[in-house]
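Sat 14:20. Reprocessing the chain from the morning session after the first attempt stalled halfway. Input below, unchanged.
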Amino acid sequence: MSQRTLPLLIINLGGEMLYILDQRLRAQDERDDKTQRGCWTEDDRKRVMNDIATTLFSKTFLEEILKPQDVFTHRGLRTVLTRIAHASIMRLNSASMDKLYDLMTMAFKYQILLSPRPRDLLLITFNHTDGIKGLVKDSHNLVNQINEAQRQLIELYTPLSDGDFQLIRHTLLVLFQDMQTRVSIFLEEKIQNPNGRFVLSTSGPVPYGYEVPGSIRWFTKGREVRRTMFPSGENYVQALNDASFDLSGDRVTRLGTNMYSKASPEDSRPSDTSNRTRKQKQVEYAPNLLATEELNLLAKLMGGMEVQKLSNVDAGFKVNLLTLEEYEGICVVAGAEQQSAKVINIQAIQDQLVNTELARIAGEFSEDGSPTEGHINKGDDLLAMMDDI
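Finished this time. Tokens:
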């Protein structure tokens, strides 16, 4: 297990989280049937983006995660990311965070699997940092803060060998190997099977400096004496330019960019790793419809969209994970109809959260996990909406 994996893991997942939340908050701001409850404005969206990015790239937080250490478990990783998300005025309930975590991890897992070479993990990370800088471009101080964090990543990771990056990639794949959540955008693109496993294409561009498969060469004392060609059976493209590992430049690969933003179908595919020496097209295309449906489901969990109740459907039974006093309080609010349903009571006690120090750095929270004063305002309205679902 590589002890240099954690910074790349948290920054890439944080970038995917910002992509998803940005798209979701933009969609809620553009809705025609806005209501006073759960209405998020453009200023709110910018504030959420800035607060989360500030926490993710804060000096104290980076100092902690850049220390050589083992990778967190999924439970510990989810705890840290939840605290980072709650560093803003936004509040997510457990169901919303579960869905958000699944989308983040599956997107990053697919990007890891498609990396042509282990060192491209750093390019994926830089694509995420570049994307985050685009989301918070109005705050020059925050952009400089992200640039400083990126300089630390360059200083730490560029001297590593290909073997070191291969160990980091192996560590990440071991962490995600049991995660097979189905994502609609991947299912529609035919790059994920119904069982949640990815379908990886063997075609595509080869890394810069590598030759296209299709030849066998024999050498004697360092001199080529014979060459045989054979059909590779796939479509390979040779890269013309190397990717930039600096603060800015052509990253060549599209892995790690925002696949939820409006772009051409060619650019929206996460597997597109061809070089982009030509200018990007100026015409905007409609986003993937199934990707929108996936995010709409997240919006329902967040309380931004109303879920219609079917009156003709048998209520069946309910599973109650709350204490008896909490459930009775909900029943009083919900009405007699919900009280009449059969209830299975399950006592579920949350275990002690791991990595308390990092979690406290990631969000402005007290020792017991409750938000401190100054972080409870509009987010409380969103939290109340999600509790009603």
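The longest strand covers residues 223-229.
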